[in-house]
């Protein structure tokens, strides 16, 4: 989604290009380019949107039409049975609430830790900086493995708590490096000026650097929130009670139960049969919609050119 | 249970990889027998047919496979009734069904496993044997009179022997059936058979004739288009064919070694003469356009769509797929269509019932051995999973509440209780509201019990198959840890090559005249060394345990 919008923006209204064009008639080559651009980008939009619209259509369709392969963009045999089935379960709502709580808590922790770490690493005069970067990068390539991790988290007493999900995954090294690069690109002069005016390190971070870094922080919030929202593995490992599962585990299990057959030789009830065909689609819609709704609000931070005009002379 | 065999293959592979080279550290045998410190709560006079009741309240942790159709509830009658009947509280560690095996491996590996670990299929325990985390339960069978009785009365010794490890012990308490239960077969559109005046085919050769006739009537259709081709091509079709040709299993249940009863040794399944014959058969079907070549690659949904739209008339099936998939699909596209699961077609191996009588079962964590309640726990496991009363309780529930018995003792579901659509209007559900007929606790047993909820149609199917001779159970060939490691290194390339060649031969991309070249290729992948390993292990086990 992000890619499409970004590409579209560049293609449609490149500000410098537009300004130059104002007085002069656009050249033929440029108009051909624009036409091509429009066609290609529209094709990209269609390609990206089609699978999603198809999934939404499937989730609202009658199973028979899906089996017959007749559902494309418009739901056929409109039917909310599967939604009703999934949403009538109180466990679904418990787990949905868990997902929200886990996502919020884990994202908050991640942002604070990642920002602090990245800011420190961005200071060239920091002694041992290479080692600190090395430690972080090391974890990108090597890990203790599943069982040692499990033993560690368990013996720290974090099993069956939100910390088991939030803490071990708090710093994503890739995000950390992106953020570090961003901080490094901030002009040193700004911070020097702030220091001259009497701000200490924390003041500089909180009052100067962070307000200038809204774009990157918003991006990171989005990255982390989406990752935590979609994650199921940590919760699956560390949560021993179903009331603690996030909705991803719940829905994953639901699909497994509907497609794999537990009671062979037995016959599931009719409502469960209906569920099977549309269940995957409903699942996708239910888990993606809320996080999708976050995009428009965060989107504007991507658009803002934060650094424009910050340094003069 | 769906994909049971497939899972077995997958976990066997994982098991072999996971096996370490450390030999299982056996305790001092005298130490094993001394249970004096572990008898708290146990019954002194527990015996065959007795109702287990702990002498004081005990609780056991149990790994719980949480099924989304009946998610775990604390207020199930099942739990409270266990409390009052057996004085036992079970503490479930809930694991989503979707990833049960992974979590089980993790918990055992981390030493954090509950005492009772159910829902483990035969051979899945192999991975945990050498670590010592799982109890060699065969040492404690004297605590389990009901299980011993069933093994003896139902002649299950050959099956149980297949579970034995190199030390001669077994580590899994399997679920046991009195009669083998073969579920997978083919489903056929009977209305098309009627239209063409044909009988339901009994053998693979008759199936060929039927497909020919269908093709003659509907030239534009591939009469047979199969499903279950992910991740391996034609998983079920290859397997049931191989079984009917007297092999140990192919497709999603690929078994490297097949037992040759005449020569008294193991042969390589993918190189056996029978395997060649079944490939010839498949190749004939494909060449004459009776079997859809896409059968080997398409998704289940594609196969179902073809069936639903009368683009095919024959498909792999189990009882559930017929009722849940094919019939509802067809009802919506073609109300006049009729489809039914046919008894497993008979091949050169004759009228056999190839299914195993072993089911998924229970592992016991080694830690449990140190519990002061160990004896009580083993008695409890024996009662709940293996006694007639326990099995009936786990499946049917409480008499008068969830079921009633008629004069002959035959149980029937209470009218206000529903399960698998028997009483669709009922307000309560046997699984969801009471916790009975739960896949974790209820399986196996006598045919009357196993088939309790089967439709008349499925009971008929089982009657046909039960009348057939049970397939010969191959003798055990337990590997040592080094051997297992070596075998697993050879198995993957061998299996991949067999799958690949199977597809090529069946589709006619490779001529069956090249069979000998194919055998040479297998030899290049250590087929002979592999067989030597198997036969050596078999000989060793036989001489040590004769």
> How many strands, which pairing sense, and closed or not: the largest β-sheet of chain B?
3 strands, antiparallel
The average pLDDT score of chain B comes to 89
Structural category of chain B: alpha/beta
Shape of chain A: flat
Spatial arrangement of strands, main beta sheet of chain B: 3-11-4
What would the keywords be for this entry?
heterodimer; A: 313 residues; mainly alpha; 16 helices; B: 546 residues; alpha/beta; three-stranded antiparallel β-sheet; 16 strands; 40% helix
Write the layout of secondary structure elements.
The complex is a heterodimer of chains A (313) and B (546).
Chain A: H1 2-12, H2 15-21, H3 28-59, H4 63-67, H5 81-87, H6 90-121, H7 129-141, H8 146-155, H9 163-166, H10 173-185, H11 188-196, H12 201-212, H13 214-230, H14 233-238, H15 247-259, H16 270-303
Helix pairs in contact in A: 1-3, 3-16, 5-16, 6-10, 6-13, 6-15, 11-12, 13-16, 15-16
Chain B: H1 4-18, H2 29-33, E1 58-66, H3 77-86, E2 88-96, H4 100-109, E3 116-120, H5 126-129, H6 145-153, H7 157-161, E4 173-176, E5 185-189, H8 190-195, H9 204-217, H10 235-244, E6 257-260, E7 265-268, H11 273-287, H12 300-308, E8 314-317, H13 319-333, E9 339-342, E10 352-353, E11 358-364, H14 374-386, H15 388-396, E12 403-405, E13 411-413, E14 417-418, E15 428-429, H16 447-450, H17 456-466, E16 469-470, H18 481-507, H19 515-524, H20 527-544
Parallel strand pairs in B: 1-2, 10-16, 14-15
Antiparallel strand pairs in B: 3-11, 4-11, 5-8, 5-9, 6-7, 12-13
Helix pairs in contact in B: 6-14, 11-18, 12-13, 14-15
């Amino acid at each position: 989604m992000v890619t499409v919008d970004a590409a579209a923006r560049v293609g449609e209204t490149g500000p410098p290009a537009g300004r130059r064009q104002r007085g002069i008639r656009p050249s033929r080559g440029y108009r051909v380019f624009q036409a091509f651009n429009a066609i290609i980008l529209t094709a990209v939009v269609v390609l990206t949107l089609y699978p999603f619209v198809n999934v939404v259509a499937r989730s609202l369709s009658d199973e028979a039409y899906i089996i017959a392969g007749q559902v494309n963009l418009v739901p056929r045999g409109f039917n909310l049975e599967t939604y009703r089935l999934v949403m009538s379960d109180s466990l679904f709502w418990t787990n949905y609430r868990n997902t929200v709580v886990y996502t919020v808590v884990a994202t908050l922790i991640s942002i604070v830790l990642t920002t602090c770490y990245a800011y420190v690493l961005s200071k060239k005069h920091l002694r041992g900086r290479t080692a600190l970067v090395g430690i972080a990068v090391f974890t990108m390539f090597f890990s203790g493995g599943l069982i040692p991790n499990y033993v560690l988290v368990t013996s720290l007493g974090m099993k069956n708590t939100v910390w088991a999900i939030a803490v071990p995954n708090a710093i994503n090294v890739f995000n950390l490096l992106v953020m570090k690069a961003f901080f490094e690109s901030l002009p040193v002069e700004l911070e020097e000026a702030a220091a001259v005016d009497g701000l200490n390190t924390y003041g500089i971070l909180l009052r100067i650097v962070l307000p200038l870094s809204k774009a990157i922080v918003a991006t990171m919030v989005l990255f982390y929130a989406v990752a935590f929202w979609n994650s199921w593995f940590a919760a699956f490992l560390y949560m021993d009670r179903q009331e603690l599962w996030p909705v991803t585990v719940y829905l994953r299990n639901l699909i497994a139960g509907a497609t794999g057959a537990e009671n062979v030789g037995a016959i599931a009830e009719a409502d469960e049969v209906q569920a099977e065909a549309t269940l995957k689609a409903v699942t996708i819609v239910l888990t993606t919609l809320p996080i999708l709704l976050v995009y428009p609000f965060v989107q504007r931070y991507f658009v803002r050119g934060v650094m424009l005009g910050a340094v003069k002379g | 249970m769906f994909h049971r065999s497939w899972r077995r293959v997958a976990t066997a592979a994982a098991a072999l990889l996971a096996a370490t080279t450390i030999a299982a550290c056996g305790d001092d045998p005298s130490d094993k027998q001394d249970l004096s410190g572990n008898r708290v709560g146990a019954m002194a006079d527990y015996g065959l047919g007795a109702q287990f009741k702990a002498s004081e309240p005990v609780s056991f942790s149990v790994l719980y496979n949480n099924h989304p159709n009946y998610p775990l509830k604390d207020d199930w009658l099942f739990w409270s009734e266990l409390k009052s009947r057996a004085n036992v509280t079970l503490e479930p560690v809930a694991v989503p069904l979707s990833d049960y095996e992974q979590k089980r491996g993790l918990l055992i590996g981390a030493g954090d496993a509950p005492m009772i670990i159910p829902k483990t299929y035969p051979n899945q325990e192999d991975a945990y044997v050498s670590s010592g985390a799982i109890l060699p339960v065969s040492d404690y069978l004297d605590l389990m009179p009901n299980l011993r009785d069933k093994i003896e009365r139902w002649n299950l010794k050959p099956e149980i022997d297949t579970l034995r490890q190199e030390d001669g012990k077994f580590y899994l308490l399997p679920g046991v059936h009195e009669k083998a239960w073969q579920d997978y077969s083919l489903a056929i559109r009977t209305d098309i058979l009627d239209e063409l005046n044909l009988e339901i085919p009994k053998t693979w050769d008759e199936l060929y004739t039927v497909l020919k006739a269908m093709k003659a009537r509907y030239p534009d259709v591939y009469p047979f288009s199969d499903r279950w081709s992910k991740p391996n091509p034609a998983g079920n079709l290859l397997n049931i064919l191989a079984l009917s040709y007297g092999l140990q299993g192919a497709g999603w249940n690929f078994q490297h070694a097949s037992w040759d009863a005449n020569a008294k040794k193991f042969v390589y399944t993918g190189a056996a003469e029978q395997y060649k014959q079944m490939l010839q058969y498949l190749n004939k079907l494909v060449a004459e356009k009776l079997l859809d070549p896409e059968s080997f690659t398409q998704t289940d949904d594609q196969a179902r769509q073809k069936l639903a739209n009368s683009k095919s008339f024959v498909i792999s099936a189990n009882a559930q797929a017929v009722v849940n998939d094919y019939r509802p699909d067809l009802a919506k596209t073609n109300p006049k269509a009729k489809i039914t699961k046919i008894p497993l077609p008979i091949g050169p191996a004759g009228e056999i019932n190839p299914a195993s009588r072993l089911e998924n079962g229970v592992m016991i964590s080694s830690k449990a051995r140190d519990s002061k309640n160990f004896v009580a726990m083993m008695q409890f496991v024996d009662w709940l999973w293996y006694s007639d009363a326990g099995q009936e309780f786990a499946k049917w529930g409480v008499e008068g509440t969830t079921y009633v018995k008629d004069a002959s003792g035959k149980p029937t579901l209470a009218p206000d209780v529903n399960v698998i659509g028997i009483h669709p209007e009922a307000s309560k559900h046997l699984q969801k509201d009471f916790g009975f007929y739960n896949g974790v606790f209820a399986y196996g047993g006598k045919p009357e019990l196993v088939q309790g909820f089967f439709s008349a149609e499925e009971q008929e199917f089982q009657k046909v198959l039960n009348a057939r001779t049970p397939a010969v159970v191959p003798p055990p060939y337990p590997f040592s840890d080094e051997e297992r490691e070596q075998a697993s290194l050879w198995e993957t390339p061998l299996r991949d090559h067999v799958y690949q060649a199977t597809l090529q031969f069946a589709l006619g991309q490779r001529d069956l005249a090249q069979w000998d070249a194919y055998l040479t290729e297998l030899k290049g992948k250590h087929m002979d060394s592999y067989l030597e390993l198997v036969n050596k292990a078999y000989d060793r086990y036989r001489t040590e345990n004769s």
